[in-house]
Amino acid sequence: MTKKKKEIILKALKAAFPHTVPILAGFLFLGITYGIYMNISGFSFIYPLLMSLLVFAGSVEFVAVNMLLGAFNPLQALFLTLMINARHLFYGIAMLDKYQNVGLKKFYLIFGMCDESFSINYSAHVPYDVDKGWFMFFVTLLNHLYWVIGATLGGIFGSFITFNTQGLEFVMPALFVVIFLEQWLKEKDHTSSVLGILLSIIALALFGEDNFIIPSMIAILITLTILRKQIEKRGGWS
Amino acid sequence: MSITQQIITIAMVVLGTVLTRFLPFLIFPKGKETPPYVKYLGLALPGAIFGMLVVYSLKSIDLTIAPYGAAEFLGVLAVVLLHLWKRQMLVSIAGGTIVYMILVQMVF
To answer: Is B91 on the interface with A (CB under 8 A)?
Structure first.
């Protein structure tokens, strides 16, 4: 590797790290929780280690513990995963342009596109002199690393961890509120943001916390499609 | 469940996750012109997605029993006010989380 390339990569890492600090706190905590959960469910730390490395999608990993404890049903495992992770389809559509032209890194960026990595990579203002591809790569990699380390630690030490972390899980909603707010301050037209909140709350009330994501996604798609002309005009895209 | 069955189950979870992440990129590859409708969705969706993620991350609040989500509401309020004031992501997140932790550990 040339000296110049090394500098570019190092600069991107330095620029990316501060954006991932909230995730460092959140993922270590949630990862440890997940590892402990696997530990008390009777699995060796190898399981949370491999799962967090290969899946890297928090909610489905918790659900997978029940799949592993229940009867063998691979098709159900596949469909349940598709249902829980369907929201990634939206992330992909939003990232079609941003993840283009970053070389082979693209495959890892898509592989590691969890809620948090997507949110940061979509909304972060990358300084003009920092390589965007490497910046997004390190955001994804660092988040992935925090999650794997947390899950493995939880799996190894299980229930030995006793400090009072009650409430620390709030870093995740706090992160999403900040990103939502940034989007709000940036956009010309708030229709989509308002719809996202409103339709999700309605779906949550109607279908309950385990089943509301797919109905909200469908409702959002339909409404955005019906309102396309107005939103394009007000958003300044047409 | 045998080890083989466990491996197959985990492989299915990996496959399902990878599919949902790669599908849009497989359907609309680089060289091909992305349909205008999908481009529109790419621009219009993020606002709605972030709204949905806010609700998703707070979905377990129970409004029917005391304190009726008061800690979450005050935590979110702290995040919003801090962010409008300083516009520093880390300050807003850390501040809001500390407010929330104090509330759930000492107040409610």
So the answer is: no
